[in-house]
Amino acid sequence: MAQNNNKDNRLEQSRRITTVGCIGVIVLLVLIYVIGLAGVKSDLGAKHARATEILARMQSHLDRTPGIFDRMLVFDCGDDAVRAVESYKQSVGTLKEKASFEELESLYRQLEQTWTEVSAGCAGEMDKEIFIGLKTELEGIQNRYNVEKGNFAKAAAIFNETLNQFPATIFNTGYKPL
Question: Higher model confidence: residue 4 or residue 97?
Answer without folding.
Answer: 97
